[in-house]
Amino acid sequence: MTEKIVNKLPAPTWNWLKMNAAEISVPEQLKKIEGEAKDGVLHFSVRTGENVFFENEIRAREGEEKTIIMDYTSQDADKNAAGFFGIKTRVILEKGARVHLVKIQMLGKNFTRHDQTFAEISDGAEFRFTQIELGGAKNFVEMISDLDGENSHLKSDISYYCADGQELDINFVANQRGKKSRSLMNSFGSLADGAKKTFRGTIDFKRGSSASSGSELEEVLLLSENAVNKSIPLILCGEEDVSGDHGATIGSVSDEIFFYLNSRGIKKAAAEEMMARAKVMRTAALIPNESCVEKIEKFLDKIFSEKNAEENP
Known about the structure:
Largest sheet: 9 strands, mixed
Radius of gyration: 20 Å
Distance between the termini: 38 Å
């Protein structure tokens, strides 16, 4: 295994918190794989014990519109075997192009994944990025967008449910160089049972990006006392006439709310499941493919049924 530094902040800060970057163990040998295209979705089914990677480039010509959906699942032939999945996607949007890239992660419990997305956004182009994180043991997710064109636009949405000691490390960066460029980054999720999540969200107004705007919004629901959340919303500014803001809501559900729900026949476990599902499905509703949304719902059914079985043997 090789130790690799990933998900680095563009400008290091809060060194004592050790959040400026993450470290991942990458197997020495990786096998290249191809996905199976079916019903408008690029499917990946990876066997436990395999160490694989996939790279692709998406190019949208001037004025072209594209929707690309990728989903990752695993075949748990050996539930005790670990696996590694590396993915790198480069998206190039020419003038006035529109691209919606969707990534849905539903791997087995012992997988480590490194998922990188890079976007180059030209004049008047719009890049929408939607990501759902549900499976895996350790997931390192990176999205870096270069808004080089005038009136270029980025909108990213990520939702997750992490439990049973899962680790999710996220690094989203919007490099805004073009005039009147716009970025909006949303993150919604829930952490339970010792899960750990780090979110780095950077809006970087480069010189020349006058009249641009950027916004970050994060909501984190903590469902256990031993869940760990770390958030770094970062705004960098090298231009004067810009507008940037960020907001984060991080907390747990009060006893009063649980008491209210329980008085109406909704037990605590059911209430937590309902809230966690809502955060995931809020983003899943943006996916323009009903069968993918149904797969997400079924994967959530599996997660919570296994959780209930463990708690009520």
